[in-house]
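call fold target=Putative septum site-determining protein MinD
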Amino acid sequence: MPRKELVMSKNVQLNTLQQRSSRSRAIAAPAVSQGVATKHNYFRATQRCSLANSGSIRTLKRAGEGYAGLFARAQPHASCRRGVLTVRAEDFSEEQPPPTNTRVIVVTSGKGGVGKTTTTSNIGVSIARLGYRVALIDADIGLRNLDLLLGLENRVLYTGMEVLDGECRLEQALIRDKRWRNLALLCISKNRQRYNVSRDNMEMLTEKVMGLGFHFILVDCPAGIDIGFVNAIAAAKEALIVTTPEITSIRDADRVAGLLEANGVFDVKLIVNRVRADMIAKNDMMSVKDVQEMLGIPLLGAIPEDTNVIISTNRGEPLVLRKKLTLSGIAFENAARRLVGKQDYLIDLSSPYKSILQRMKEFVVGE
């Protein structure tokens, strides 16, 4: 083949390759632009998801019922929902199997200020630390405080009232403790709501909580013997009566014991709170034995007076979770062990609690 024709043939082939390359780029351009758009859309969707989550967290930190409705209307999609603020039945799959019979225990006293909420929080946490699934129900409508003692006040978004009204599910109203996954809290109502719960509503809520597989349900009963007391004991089969070694508290506890028996609650146990051994030694305060004989109720535990209760309340940390347990924290743990059926001894309160240094000093001095 002549040299001139060979050059022309190569030029034709080169032009053909260039045309094919240009057509390939033209075909690939929409695909590339579509891929860029897809990546951009994915970024925008992820950004919207994160904004929705951050908005829900900000809503959780606000107080008031208006924000709860706002969160219900602007709830993020299930695919981008964090799901760390509610408790579900499958969250307890790693624990013991669901019980065949859930124990519903109401903590009551009749007189206010004797330590019902403190007892409920500490015994509930102690039982949860033993491996049982525990649900705490704050039945004090209008004056709830159990969330403060557990440090969960900023996470109360839904309550039992929203569950009854159909605004949320029970799993959304139950707040799981971050320290113990097998401990959950349910507030019946917020502070601004009045007595809107009936006896049937309380029984319905308790049955729903029982369906989630809890071993123990502790109900924090409000003070007094009015409609709040009647609703709190509606679904209970057992009761803990908290009293102090004062004649006024003992009279109210005796009255409450009679009302519990009239409502079919016969399994009743006694907790004597705020016991001072030094005053008992001076005959300025009735002993635990005297209180038990006056009421005729089996004794579950005697809790000594402790100034650390105020500190733990302000910190939102129960006494039994402190690194250095005080005598009252040990007494609450022992009471919880006896409540679940484990053998344990009562703390000897015949003499004031003394540290090791005090005992060494007494040994050296010879007192």
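return ok
The chain has one domain: 101-357. The chain has 14 helices and eight strands.
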